[in-house]
Write a structure and sequence with these properties.
CATH superfamily of the largest domain: TolB, C-terminal domain
Strand content: over 45%
Low-confidence stretches: 230-247, 460-487
Mean pLDDT: 88
CATH architecture of the largest domain: 6 Propeller
Structural class: mainly beta
CATH topology of the largest domain: Neuraminidase
Distance between the termini: 89 Å
Protein name: Fibronectin type-III domain-containing protein
Shape: elongated
Radius of gyration: 40 Å
Helix content: under 10%
InterPro entries: Vgb, WD40/YVTN_repeat-like_dom_sf
């Protein structure tokens, strides 16, 4: 088995620390990421920064705002009354922090060194986002009524517009003061200008949570189809999916020019796109869940994975003063910093390669570029648990031969490799382009889950394991049920269900023996299907067994090939038809006759009796005890109304395996 990583789609599945995965599938040094502060709260929902370098974090579930100083010291800026979650923050030119709460829909102002003061109650249940325009005007995006509100310095609330969706979840302002808003429900993007809201785009995804505006006024809208689900707490309100909305899990980034032209720049199978931010180079940074991935997308749509966090929900982003980026996390209450520019070292850890069972390793090879002053090192580790911290081996020593180094890790089910990139020369970085590893699965025995021998002419067994007996109608009434189509004499279907844990191709052999015999006789070998039409005509009647043997020989050399077998339950082979004896016809008054006799079968119970006069239609009859269910059945039935002269009455009986016995009796009526 061989695994190869050489594309963006493959490398994206791994873990990046200080490296990025570019659109062409190359891995190189990227922004360094470090833990910046720990608020000790459950979730960081919002981030904002003031001119002095203080960072503010809005958290849940206790409705607190924390101040993180340039020295990384964490202080409580304010605990907001009657609030559980602070979803929205904004900082004005004077350093005052505005905080929007949910539920309750209140907005507070926290002036430097002062306690929180209520600015207004919006009348909405949720304040999802706040935005300050360059002129200092404060706007709020709310949920529960889908309104965008303007809040004056004295706390007066003015409705700017109402969306057709219940929740306006994102809000940002361009340099010219134009506001843009995104909704949850139908995925609408609005321009808010001149006191009115205008739809710019209706995204196919259900929610537009990330908005960013470039220097030239181009709007970037990040849309997603998933919903935020955190392990603890219930911060998000229950919001049903609109009727007709897409159920496909995906996210996308759209570029909307000032003229209104829309282009889809990027899309991903990641269901959550939680935040968007412009970096200092005019590219968009996207925070996605539920794998904690950070992407950088250029204006040409080229994307790179620049970070992956252990916490899976990066909920908030904020630009720093020197091109760095702060990231607030859900589920841990931590804040991380992504530095601007490439670091001096980074690590790429591959996904866990699952060989399905214990495996012996071959070699790992890689293709990389390491200019002078840079280095690339490769290690491996292995384990049998899906989580790589549960009993896995230690990382191996550095492997030397890029063209193919033997993998030194212990045999196991899972394997990972790690690549360390480093540089001592500014502006020069190594590049990993491809990694290939091989291993041989331990061969596991095939399995046979079931083996069924079906009665002739049947594709599957009846619930009782055979056909139901024929019963006489209540009250002794007649009836002429037509017999079913005759089965091909002596042909029995053998069916089985088999599989192989390694996914190997299987071949099968079938054997038969009587229950009183000791040796198996081959029926057929090298079968590729799991059913076989077996002709039993050359097999003696009586209790019989079938054995099927499955082999993985088609995919394994002889010394390593394994087999499995299964023996059926005993079943009857019966190719001998029933016999009719003591068959006679006696006058029964008024020109009628009574036909009597006895039907018997050596092996199987009888199931049906029929008669026909002069090759006419077949008519059912029943045995003397009213039900065909034994190997011997006396019978008597009345034939009425034959015309004068000689007639032949044909009598046939059928056993449980559809063998048919036929007899006849001649009757004469009238004077002839």
């Amino acid at each position: 088995m061989t695994w190869r990583d050489d594309t963006f789609a493959e490398f994206e599945k791994g873990e990046v620390k200080g490296v990025s995965v570019a659109a062409d599938g190359s891995v190189t040094l990227s922004q360094a990421v470090e833990e910046y502060a720990d608020t000790k709260a459950l979730h960081v929902w919002a981030l904002a920064r003031d001119a002095q370098g203080n960072l503010y974090a809005g958290t849940g579930n206790e409705g607190k705002v924390f101040r993180i100083g340039p020295d990384r010291k964490v202080d409580l800026a304010g605990a907001l009354p009657d609030a559980r979650i602070v979803h929205a923050l904004a900082v004005d030119a004077e350093g005052a922090v505005y905080a929007g709460t949910s539920p309750g829909g209140r907005i507070y102002r926290i002036a430097p060194g002062k306690a929180p003061a209520l600015v207004c109650s919006t009348g909405a249940r949720y304040v999802w986002a706040l935005a300050l325009t360059p002129k200092g005007d404060l706007y709020a995006a709310t949920g529960g009524g889908g309104k965008v509100l303007r809040i004056s310095p004295d706390g007066k609330v003015t409705e700017v517009g109402t969306s057709s969706d219940e929740h306006v979840v994102s809000l940002t302002a361009g340099q010219d003061g134009t506001l843009y808003a995104g909704t949850e429900g139908s995925g609408l993007v609005y321009r808010v200008s001149g006191g009115r809201m205008q739809v710019l785009y209706d995204a196919p995804e259900r929610e537009v949570r990330g908005l960013a505006v470039g220097r030239d006024g181009t709007l970037y809208a990040g849309a997603m189809s998933g919903a935020v689900r955190l392990e603890e707490g219930k911060e998000e309100p229950p919001r049903p999916r609109p009727e007709g909305a897409s159920t496909e899990e995906r996210s996308g980034l759209y570029r909307i020019s000032p003229s209104g032209a829309v282009l889809k720049l990027w899309e991903s199978g990641q269901p959550l796109l939680l935040a968007a931010l412009m970096d200092g180079d005019g590219r968009v940074l996207l925070a996605t869940g539920d794998k904690g991935m950070f992407y950088r997308v250029g204006d040409d749509g080229a994307a790179a994975v620049v970070a992956r966090f252990e916490e899976t929900q990066p909920l908030a982003v904020c630009a720093g003063r020197e091109g760095d980026v702060f990231v607030g996390m859900g589920g841990a209450g931590k804040v991380y910093r992504m530095w601007k520019g490439a670091g001096t070292e980074g690590t790429y850890i591959s996904r866990r390669y699952d060989f399905g069972s214990g495996a012996r390793w071959g070699k790992i090879a890689w293709r990389a570029e390491a200019p002078a002053g840079t280095a690339v090192s490769v290690q491996t580790r292995s384990g049998n648990a899906e989580k790589s911290d549960d009993g896995w081996s230690e990382w191996s020593a550095d492997l030397r031969d890029a063209s193919g180094s033997p993998i030194p890790s212990p045999p196991a089910r899972f394997l990972q490799y790690r690549v360390r990139l480093s540089s001592t020369t500014p502006g020069i970085a190594p590049v990993l382009r491809e990694a290939t590893l091989t291993g041989l699965q331990e061969n596991l025995r095939p399995t046979i889950a079931s083996l069924d021998v079906l009665p002739p002419g049947r594709g599957r067994p009846s619930p009782e394991g055979g056909p139901p007996p024929q019963r006489a109608p209540q009250g002794g009434g007649g009836g002429n049920p037509k017999p079913g189509p005759a089965a091909k004499q002596g042909v029995t279907a053998v069916q089985w269900a088999a599989g192989d844990p390694n996914g190997d191709e299987l071949s099968y052999a079938l054997y038969v023996r009587g229950i009183d015999e000791t040796g198996w006789r081959l029926i057929e070998k090298d079968l590729k299907t799991t059913s076989y039409p077996w002709n039993t005509e050359s097999t003696p009647d009586g209790p019989t067994l079938i054995r099927v043997v499955a082999s993985d020989r088609p995919d394994n050399p002889e010394p390593l090939a394994l087999t499995a077998e299964r023996v059926s339950e005993p079943f009857e082979v019966d190719n001998t038809p029933p016999r009719l004896t003591s068959l006679k016809a006696l006058p029964d008054g008024a020109g009628a006759f009574r036909v009597e006799g006895e039907a018997s079968d050596e092996t199987s119970p009888l199931k049906r009796g029929e008669y026909a006069v002069d090759s006419g239609d077949w008519n059912a009859f029943f045995p003397s005890d009213g039900i065909f269910d034994s190997r011997t059945e006396p019978f008597s039935f009345r034939v009425t109304g034959p015309s004068e002269g000689g007639h032949v009455v044909l009598v046939r009986v059928t056993d449980a395996l559809d063998n048919v016995g036929v007899g006849k009796v001649v009757i004469r009526t009238g004077t002839k």
